[in-house]
Design goal:
The chain has helices spanning 27-33, 46-49, 55-68, 71-79, 84-94, and strands spanning 13-16, 22-25, 114-116, 120-122, 127-129, 134-135, 139-140, 147-152, 155-160, 164-166. By secondary structure, the chain is an alpha+beta fold. Strands 6-3-10 form a three-stranded antiparallel β-sheet, with no helix packed on it. The chain has a three-stranded antiparallel β-sheet with strand order 7-8-9, with no helix packed on it. The N and C termini lie far apart (48 Å). The model has no long low-confidence stretch (mean pLDDT 89). The structure holds zinc ion. Residues 4, 6-7, 9, 25-26, 28-29 line the site of zinc ion (ZN).
């Protein structure tokens, strides 16, 4: 038994990681790294872990953050920029675990139609996508569960899943 490398909890056990490596993780973190849903508050530990000098710890935190798709998680991802090798490792196996969900928690798939639930200014395009606009044939952004792409007013834009509702 040792301390969890992600959250610092006692009673961590050695857990093998995909695609490579081994880490001491508590039960909760181990489930999360494997792609299972975990209580939000537990993941406050990722704020620190994602800056770890240990590439394995940083990679695990990076992977979990991508899987969350929550606004705060995307903010952390934007601020932190791990080595490419760390990102590659983190996302190699993690991608399959990404689940895109709309503002109500409904699972989104490629080709779905969604409705915008608020006015969204489109950066760089000079227009605002209006609340209530239907976006048909969305595609999921592969490395971020918080992002989808769709066509609005003839332009392909990235939309945050927290601002859409599945139609
Ligand atoms: Zn833990």
């Amino acid at each position: 038994m040792s301390q969890c490398q992600l959250c610092g909890a006692d009673a961590a056990e050695n857990t093998s990681l995909q695609p490579s490596g081994e880490a001491a993780l508590c039960v909760v973190c181990a489930a999360g790294v494997a792609g299972e849903a975990v209580d939000g508050p537990h993941w406050q530990c990722l704020h620190e872990a994602v800056w770890s000098a240990d590439p394995l710890v940083q990679g695990m935190a990076w992977r979990v953050l991508h899987g969350l798709g929550a606004p705060w998680a995307n903010d952390v991802i934007d601020m932190c920029d791990p080595e490419q090798s760390v990102q590659d490792w983190a996302l190699a196996e993690g991608l399959a675990a990404l689940v895109h969900r709309d503002s109500n928690g409904a699972v989104l798939a490629n080709g779905d139609t969604v409705t915008l639930i608020k006015d969204l200014p489109v950066k760089g395009a000079g227009f605002t996508a209006k609340r209530g606009t239907a976006v048909r044939g969305i595609s999921l952004v592969q490395d971020n569960a918080g992002h989808i792409e769709g066509r609005v007013e003839g332009q392909r834009i990235v939309i945050l899943t927290e601002f859409v509702k599945k139609s």
